[in-house]
C-alpha cells in the first residue's frame, strides 16, 4: 500500500517529535503545525491524505478545525489523538468528520494500526474508550460538549480567541475582519449565553473544551 501523506497538528513539540518517530517508516510526513488555524491553512496548501490533530489547540480548537477541514478537503481522513476520554468529546469529533479517535495514553503501535484502518476506509476508536462509546449510544440524553448550538462558527472562533487573551484588535487581524465586527460578535455571544464579563467567557470556554484550563 502506498504510504499516506500525513500532516501532524499538536501544540506540544515533544508530542509532534514522538509522532514523527512513530510514523516515519509508515507515512510520508508532509508537515507539522502547532495551532488550529495554522492547521487549516497548511492543509489547504499541502492537501494531505491524513491529518492527526488534538481537540485542545490554540487559536482554533480541533472540533471546529475539523469542520473547516472537511468542507475544504472532503476526502481527507482525520484522526484525533487527545487526552479527552469523555464520550461527549468522541461524539463531537465524529460529527465533525473524524475517522479515528485515540488517547494520548494509547500504545504507539495502536496509532499505526488506526492509520492503516482509516486509510482502508474504516473507522477506528481506541479500545480504551470503546465500551463507554457503545454505552453512550444506548443511553439517551447524553450531554454535548459543543459550545451552544445557537453560536455560529465565527462566534465560536471569537469566543476561543477572547478566552485565550487576545484583544479585539488582535482578533480582528487574525480573522481579517474589522474591530467593530469582533466587538459586535463578542456582545452577541455574551447576550446569547447570558454572560456578563470577559472572565465569564473564559470560564465558559474552559468548561466547554474550547481552551485548556491553566
UniProtKB/TrEMBL annotation:
The modification 4-aspartylphosphate is found at residue 54. Residues 5-119 form the Response regulatory domain. Residues 144-209 form the HTH luxR-type domain. Pfam families: GerE (PF00196), Response_reg (PF00072). GO terms for molecular function: DNA binding. Keywords: DNA-binding, Phosphoprotein, Transcription, Transcription regulation. SUPFAM superfamilies: C-terminal effector domain of the bipartite response regulators, CheY-like. One of its GO terms (biological process) is regulation of DNA-templated transcription. This is Response regulator, LuxR family. It comes from Nitrospira japonica.
Amino acid at each position: 500500500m502506498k504510504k499516506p501523506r500525513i500532516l501532524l497538528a499538536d501544540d506540544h513539540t515533544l508530542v509532534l517529535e514522538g509522532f514523527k518517530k512513530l510514523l516515519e517508516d509508515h507515512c510520508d510526513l508532509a508537515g507539522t503545525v502547532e495551532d488550529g488555524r495554522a492547521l487549516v491553512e497548511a492543509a489547504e496548501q499541502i492537501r494531505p491524505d491524513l491529518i492527526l490533530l488534538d481537540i485542545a489547540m490554540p487559536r482554533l480548537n480541533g472540533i471546529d478545525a475539523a469542520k473547516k477541514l472537511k468542507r475544504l478537503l472532503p476526502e481527507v481522513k482525520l484522526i484525533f489523538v487527545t487526552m479527552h476520554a469523555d464520550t461527549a468529546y468522541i461524539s463531537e469529533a465524529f460529527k465533525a468528520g473524524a475517522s479515528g479517535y485515540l488517547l494520548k495514553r494509547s500504545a504507539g503501535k495502536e496509532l499505526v494500526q488506526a492509520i492503516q484502518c482509516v486509510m482502508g476506509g474504516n473507522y477506528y476508536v481506541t479500545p480504551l474508550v470503546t465500551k463507554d462509546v457503545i454505552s453512550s449510544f444506548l443511553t439517551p440524553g447524553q450531554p454535548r460538549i459543543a459550545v451552544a448550538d445557537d453560536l455560529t462558527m465565527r462566534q465560536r472562533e471569537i469566543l476561543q480567541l477572547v478566552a485565550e487573551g487576545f484583544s479585539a484588535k488582535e482578533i480582528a487581524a487574525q480573522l481579517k475582519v474589522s474591530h467593530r465586527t469582533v466587538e459586535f460578535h463578542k456582545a452577541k455571544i455574551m447576550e446569547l449565553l447570558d454572560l456578563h464579563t470577559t472572565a465569564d467567557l473564559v470560564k465558559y470556554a474552559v468548561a466547554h473544551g474550547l481552551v485548556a484550563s491553566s
